[in-house]
Every structure is written in structure tokens, then in C-alpha cells.
């Protein structure tokens, strides 16, 4: 697998070792600013960890030929960073995915591609429709455009070269080991530091939250039972607007519900994502385990309280990057 030192990849390693103890896992990860070996410390002797880049073709070729399944999580994943500097997104998300596809094609290895609902663009707040597998691609940001590009590479390699691939497009994840640049951990760690949470614009943008363990159980359902060449949307009916999420974090932490600031909005900020995961549920029988977002959020707050040593080294640099990008209180 790729990207196992990142948020979702590290949780995938932990879940896989817990549910499939005989699995032999090789993690290929470049340990960018977003990768953290500490996330794998407790299972380090049960996996092979390779520090390397997914765009390194000879390395990838060597690892792929020794594997019977490649699950591709590695990416540049943060929209705000893609607005400051899009190049690493093209390099990793497009060239890196191309490199993996060439290797799985060469060695005829089963491939699962992790992608995002952002490839579909955004919805109006009152749109009765949600994204489905048939929704046309319409990405808004450099991040989502490079993820859309990578999905299209997978589809083309599947059709033209017979690569044995499936794709999943998931909504916003939350849970342990998420970098503090992302919305929920940023606000939790701000509150723990006595700093007011930051809401972009009017705070009305809606995201469709899913616990990372539910994302990963769905990935395994697709690997085990999904039809080759097909795409599956992963979501847990978790729509909430950003203001509601910040209010919940403040309440959980014992602060006043209005103790937050509105800050400069993200350029091109997608308004709403919403996933219809009927196909995954009806064809593969998958169901989410975390149905109570508030309970999942409480557990996540507790994880950040208990694991300050994990997130503290990232915090100052992250906040400095937001300040440097021009974020200011409205
Ligand atoms: P993350 O930023 O936390 O982790 C990315 C990992 O990839 C890091 O460990 C990093 O070191 C590694 N990496 C980056 N560039 C690399 C390269 N060139 N070679 C090797 N390793 C490299 O990301 P995440 O939030 O865990 O997202 C994982 C995947 O899931 C991504 O493909 C993302 O697009 C997708 N996704 C994320 C979400 C979400 O809410 N976070 C939702 C849907 C889909
Ligand atoms: O939908 C799936 C996507 O979800 C993934 O593909 C991405 O990798 C992942 O980063 C996430 O993208 P978002 O841009 O939706 O996530 P982010 O955590 O950056 O922001 C969530 C919402 O919160 C979004 O509307 C922007 C807003 N926001 C974010 C930050 C960091 C704030 O209001 N304040 C903040 O400080």
C-alpha cells in the first residue's frame, strides 16, 4: 500500500492488522510533512516500511512485482496547500498514480484506487440530489482536479490495458491521526490551546462526514467483492455545516458555542458535498458502524487530548502557514 504514514492509510494499516492478522503489509511512503511514522509505531514490527516516492518508477516496479494487491492512498491531500503551490499535487497525484498504474499493468497486480467526492465539484445547499457514480466530473481546486486526473488515468488503464482496478470516492473523513491542518483537528487543537476556532466565510459550507474506520471497512468490502473496472461511492449520510461542527467541538470541550472567529474564505470554496452510497450498500452489503457523528466527534476530541505528543510538533508550522497564506479574522 502507499501513503500508510498518512491519516487514512495509517488507520487502514491498524484496521487491517486487527481484522486480518495474517496480512503482509508493505507501506511505501515519502514521509512528506503529512506523513508521520509515529502513527505506525505500535505496529512497526508487523509491517515492512519503505521510505520512498510513488513517482520513483524502478522502486515502485520492484515493490509491485512482489505484491498481490496495491491499495493507493498516497496523495497531496489538502485543498488550501494546493492553492498556495499546485505543483506537488500534479507530481504526486498525477505522475505518482501514472507510475503505479504502469507497474500494476506490467505485473498484472490487482489495484484499488482511493479517491475523493471532490472530483464531482459541489452542490447547492438546497439541491435534492446527491453525488452518485453517474455524476459528471467537475472538480474545482488544484487538489480535486489532480485527483480527478488520477481517477481518469485508472479508468483508461482499465479499459485500454485490462488493468484489474476498482476506484472508491469517499466523503470527508474524521478520526485519529488526522493532520492538524484539516478542519476538525485544527479546531480541536486550537480549542485545547485556548485559541478560537476559525470558520471560513460564513461557515455554511456542508461536508458529509464519515469516520475513517468506516471508510476503510468500505475499501475492504470493495477489494473483496467489488466488480473490476467499477467505481463505488463511500459515504455515511453525515452531512453537517462547518458552523455546526465547530459549535459541537466547543460544546464538547466545555466552551461557549459562539467562541469562534470568522476568517477569510477559501478561494473557489466548494459549498456542499453529499454522497449517495446506495450502490456500495446494496451490491456489497456494506454499512457504516459509526452512525452517531456527535459520539464519533467526542471520541476524536478525546484522542487529541490523549495524544498531544503526536500532534504538537505539527501545530506551530501549520498555523504559520495559514498566517503566511493571508488568513485574517473578518
Ligand atoms: P494525508 O495527507 O494525511 O496522507 C498522505 C500520505 O501520503 C502521507 O503519509 C504522505 O507522506 C504520503 N505521500 C505524499 N506524497 C507522496 C509521494 N509522492 N510518495 C509517497 N508517499 C507520499 O492524506 P489522507 O487524508 O490520509 O488521504 C489519503 C487518501 O485519501 C488521498 O488519496 C486522499 O485524496 C483520499 N481521501 C481523503 C479524504 C479525507 O477526508 N482526508 C476523503 C476522501 C479521499
Ligand atoms: O471531501 C473529501 C475531501 O475532504 C478530501 O478529498 C480531502 O483530502 C480532505 O482534505 C477534505 O477536503 P476539505 O477541503 O473538505 O477539508 P478541510 O478539512 O480542509 O475543510 C473542511 C471544511 O472546513 C471546508 O468547507 C473548509 C472549512 N474550513 C477548513 C479549515 C482548515 C474552515 O472553515 N476552517 C478551517 O480552518
From TrEMBL:
Cofactor: NAD(+)
Molecular function in Gene Ontology: dTDP-glucose 4,6-dehydratase activity
InterPro entries on file: dTDP_Gluc_deHydtase (IPR005888), NAD(P)-bd_dom (IPR016040), NAD(P)-bd_dom_sf (IPR036291)
EC id: 4.2.1.46
Reactions catalysed according to its record: dTDP-alpha-D-glucose = dTDP-4-dehydro-6-deoxy-alpha-D-glucose + H2O
Family affiliation: Belongs to the NAD(P)-dependent epimerase/dehydratase family. dTDP-glucose dehydratase subfamily.
Protein name: dTDP-glucose 4,6-dehydratase
Species of the source: Rhodococcoides trifolii
Amino acid at each position: 500500500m502507499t501513503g500508510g504514514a498518512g491519516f487514512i492509510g495509517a488507520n487502514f494499516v491498524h484496521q487491517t492488522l486487527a481484522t486480518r492478522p495474517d496480512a503482509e503489509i508493505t507501506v511505501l511512503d515519502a514521509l512528506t510533512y503529512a506523513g508521520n511514522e509515529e502513527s505506525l509505531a505500535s505496529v512497526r514490527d508487523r509491517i515492512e516500511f519503505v521510505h520512498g516516492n510513488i513517482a520513483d518508477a524502478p522502486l515502485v516496479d520492484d515493490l509491485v512485482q512482489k505484491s498481490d494487491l496495491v491499495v493507493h492512498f498516497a496523495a497531496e491531500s489538502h485543498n488550501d496547500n494546493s492553492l498556495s503551490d499546485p505543483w506537488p499535487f500534479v507530481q504526486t497525484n498525477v505522475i505518482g498514480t501514472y507510475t503505479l498504474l504502469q507497474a500494476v499493468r506490467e505485473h498484472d497486480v490487482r489495484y484499488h484506487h482511493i479517491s475523493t467526492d471532490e472530483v464531482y465539484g459541489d452542490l447547492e445547499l438546497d439541491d435534492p440530489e446527491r453525488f452518485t457514480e453517474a455524476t459528471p466530473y467537475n472538480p474545482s481546486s488544484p487538489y480535486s482536479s489532480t485527483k480527478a486526473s488520477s481517477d481518469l488515468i485508472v479508468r483508461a488503464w482499465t479499459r485500454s490495458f485490462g488493468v484489474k482496478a476498482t476506484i472508491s470516492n469517499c466523503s470527508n473523513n474524521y478520526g485519529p491521526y488526522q493532520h492538524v491542518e484539516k478542519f476538525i483537528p485544527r479546531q480541536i487543537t486550537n480549542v485545547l490551546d485556548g485559541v478560537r476556532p476559525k470558520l471560513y466565510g460564513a461557515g455554511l459550507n456542508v461536508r458529509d462526514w464519515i469516520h475513517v474506520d468506516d471508510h476503510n471497512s468500505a475499501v475492504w468490502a470493495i477489494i473483496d467483492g467489488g466488480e473490476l473496472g467499477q467505481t463505488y461511492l463511500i459515504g455515511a449520510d453525515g452531512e453537517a455545516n462547518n458552523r455546526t461542527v465547530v459549535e459541537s467541538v466547543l460544546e464538547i470541550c466545555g466552551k461557549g458555542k459562539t467562541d469562534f472567529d470568522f476568517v477569510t474564505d477559501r478561494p473557489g470554496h466548494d459549498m456542499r458535498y453529499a454522497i449517495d452510497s446506495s450502490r456500495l450498500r446494496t451490491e456489497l452489503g456494506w454499512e457504516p458502524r459509526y452512525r452517531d457523528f456527535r459520539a464519533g466527534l467526542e471520541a476524536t476530541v478525546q484522542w487529541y487530548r490523549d495524544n498531544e505528543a503526536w500532534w504538537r510538533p505539527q501545530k506551530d508550522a501549520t498555523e504559520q502557514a495559514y498566517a503566511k497564506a493571508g488568513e485574517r479574522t473578518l
